[in-house]
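User: Show me a protein chain along with its predicted structure.
Assistant: Here is one chain, sequence first, then C-alpha cells.
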Amino acid sequence: MARIPLDHARSLHARALRAMSRRRFGKVIDPGLVAAHHPAVLYTMYATELGAGRWRKTDPALQALAVMRTAAVIGCTWCMDFGYWEYHHRGVDPVKLRAVPDWQSSTVFTPLERAVLEYADAMTATPPTVTDELVERLRAELTDAQVVELTALISLENQRSRTNAAMGLTSQGFKDQCELPAAMATDAVGAARG
C-alpha cells in the first residue's frame, strides 16, 4: 500500500498529470501521484523521463534487461510490472522479460545479454561491484556510447525503483494488459488465418 496518499492532488499540475497519464498509459500512474505532492520533484522526474526516452543507441532488448534486472534486484514490483508493459510494447521478447528475475539459471539469454544482466546486478549492489573485466566484456560488443547509455539507464532505474519501493508502490496491473488469455489468442490466430 502506498505510504503517501494517492488521491490528494487537485491542483492544476495534478490534473494535467492525470490527463497525460491516462492518455499515454491508459491509467494514472502511481509514481506521478506521489510526486505530485511536490511539484518541483514532479517536473524534474518528468523532464528526466522525457530525456531518457530519447536514449536509443542501445537495442531495446538490452535496455529492457538492464532496467528490469535493476528493478528485480531492488524488489520494485511497480517497476517490474510497468517495465514489462513498456518493453512488451517496444517489441522485446516476453520470454526474456519473464526470465529476468532468475537470469542466472535461464538458457534464453545470449552472452551479451548475460553480461548486461550481470552489469545491472553489479551496479545495483551496495556498494557497487563493477569490475574492469565486466566493463571490458561489454565494450567488446558495444560502443562506448552504448555502455554509457546502459550505465545511465541502470542508474536511473535505481532511482525509480528505490523511490517507488520506499513509497510502498506496487503493481498497477500493466503486465496483465499485455497477456491475451489462451482462448482469445487462439481466436485471434484463427481469425487471422481465416
